[in-house]
Amino acid sequence: MIVRAGVLYDGTLEPPRRNVDVVIANGAVAEIRAAGGDRDLESPCVTPGLVNAHAHLEGSGEPDLMGMIAATTPSQRLLRAVENARKSIKAGVTTIRDLGSSNRIAADVRDAVEEGRIPGPRMRVAGAVLCMTGGHGWPIGRAVDSPWDARKAVREQLWAGADCIKLIATGGVLTKGAVPGIAQLTPDELEAAIDEAHRHGLRAAAHAIGAEGIKNALRAGVDSVEHGTLLDDDGIALLREQQGYLVPTLSAPTCILAHLEDGTQPPFVAEKARALGEVMVTNLRRAYESGVRFAGGSDAGTPYNYHEDYAHEVELMSSLLGMTAQQALHAATSVAAELVGLHRGVLAVGEPGDLLLLRRDAGEDLRALREPQLVLKGGAIQ
Fold it and tell me: For the whole model, what pTM was predicted?
């Protein structure tokens, strides 16, 4: 297949190329050359497929995610996850990392996608989140009560098919009674779990909103900090020193705050989101301007945060953090792909033929990502 691009963003920060052909053979990029001769597809703008490094496929943007989990069966949530995998790929997300699901749902969806039985992105999955007893995320969690128990929990997720690990380092917004700024898993529990994950070749992500929990996770060797809302200067220094990734999930609080007047969210969710929204942009923008490495991830599945709207997260990285359009694309393709670890997230020879064909130049207006002309995964139209 030959795809002709009026302008090509390859996922790096190199200047875009104009009037080029991307040749795809056996599911991978075989050549990128000057446009000429026959072509199979043509588009004003081509980018790599988007990479969402933080999502929850069994959630569909319900106002009360934890309430939905309590009120539905695993089979019902599996069906939602299948539908959301399809919505994701249709919206241009060709790779996704599911960071917490119940009942092995994400792993089953991943396996079905890999076997070609259902449409969906390439996937990494964490399985159950590792949390303290009664801590944030417990409805999709495995309670951990000691360092050795943390190691056992990692082994259980590996046994159940996980290919990354999610740790709950602080409280969060969606769980009643979990204060976002308070650390939850202890430093020694985090260190044991991360060491065990790394021994088995798994990367570890930490849900970490509060400053103390962020630093606990980083000192324990975590690979990525998810959210990072109350990040302080010491946390920024640790992220830079350890070359960790920060996944800002800007859509999660932004979508909650945009629907405060709907009256369908639990009052405690609205109250906590309102408090965090006042400081989120200031802290995360300071981290970006300090040189912290940001990877795109939206926390899709949380209230009003839909899997088909990942383009909104890319736009927010630009409008709230001060990234240029190309920098935001870079964060949502190659940087996020580095973190997920399935491929490089760039359009280069030998890389997967995951392409997003757009009707106008995304480097001039990121809203071009909202309605793709076509999505290719492994060279196949989705």
Answer: 0.98
Tokens coding 103: 């009942």
The answer to whether 173 and 276 have CB atoms below 8 angstroms apart is yes
93-98 vs 50-55, strand pairing mode: parallel
The span from the CA of 217 to the CA of 194, in Å, is 9
Q: What is the pLDDT of residue 117?
A: 98
Distance of CA 213 to the CA centre of its chain: 20
The domain locations on the chain are 2-48+346-381, 50-340
Summarize the confidence of residues 212-233 as an average pLDDT.
98
pLDDT value of position 261: 86
For 245-254, what is the mean pLDDT?
A: 98
Model confidence pLDDT, tens digit, residues 93-118 = 999 999 999 999 999 999 999 999 99
- Helices and strands counted in the chain (H then E): 12, 17
Rounded (10°) angle between helices 187-199 and 211-219: 40
Architecture of domain 2-48+346-381: Roll (2.30)
Average pLDDT for residues 233-243, to the nearest whole number? Answer: 97
CA distance linking residue 376 with residue 210, whole number of Å: 39
Q: What is d(CA 223, CA 244) in angstroms, rounded to the nearest whole number? A: 6
pLDDT bin (cut points 50, 70, 90) of residue 91 is very high
2-48+346-381 against 50-340: fold identical: no
Grade residue 298 by pLDDT with cuts at 50, 70 and 90: very high
pLDDT at 217: 98
What is the Cα gyration radius of the chain? Answer: 20
Give the architecture (CATH level 2) of 50-340: Alpha-Beta Barrel (3.20)
Half-sphere exposure of 201 (CA within 13 A, CB side): 4
The amino acid at 59: G
Query: From CA 267, how far away is CA 260, in angstroms rounded?
Result: 9
CB crowding 175-196: b at 16 or more within 10 Å, else e: beebebbebbbbbebbbbbbbb
Other Cβ atoms less than 10 A from the Cβ of 242: the count is 13
Strand order in the sheet with 122-125: 50-55, 93-98, 122-125
Task: Residue count of the chain, please give it.
Answer: 382
